Amino acid sequence: MRNFIVAITGASGAIYARRILQGLNQPALRTYLIVSPAGRRLLHEELGLEQPVPERLLDEPVRSEIIPLAYHDIGACVASGSFPSEGMVIAPCSSSKLAQVAHGGADNLIARAAQVMLKERRRLVLLHREMPLSLVDVRNMVAATEAGAIICPASPGFYLQPRTIGDLVDMVAGRVLGLLAVPCDWKIQWAGADRRS
Ligand SMILES: Cc1cc2nc3c(=O)[nH]c(=O)nc-3n(C[C@H](O)[C@H](O)[C@H](O)COP(=O)(O)O)c2cc1C
Question: Residue 66 sits in which domain range?
Fold first, then answer.
């Protein structure tokens, strides 16, 4: 089993979290899911979910193992570096959580698990969403990047001629899965368009 951590915070873009979880919905994968209180609110506002239960969040049959963990349980398995998780994504990642990650905050399970990823030199992807960015955000991005995190702005490209919101979401969510080395056959790769002179 490959273990991953998905954390959902209170930034806009709950649909990205759903698509990433769908990408991780594979039999050989286990996902530990943490949702902040503000993340719960966004799941309600944007996806109409009362409770972030895996079946509702996925919106498709559960084929993998998804284990919800409590936001305030800083004693959960993923709070320890001895627990063999491969990578973590915070998606969407609020500026507030970005700041916590950048400055070593660990008073909740999302922040603590992120600090574990950094100290263990494991992959940590922050799918940050805010616009415009303040200087505080930019400095926090620098600090988080220097500490080893990958800042992945929720900013889809348009070069594959997207036709639906789903196409745009796939482009972002698929890139996150790629950063976690999770196989995904969505059509999000630029095949190249050579222009001969
Ligand atoms: C509808 C709604 C949309 C929000 N969108 C964003 C956003 O895109 N980016 C952001 O950084 N914060 C956003 N916020 C604010 C965060 O939810 C707030 O800062 C919260 O404290 C973040 O907490 P968390 O990081 O623990 O989830 C939004 C809040 C609401 C209610």
Answer: 2-179
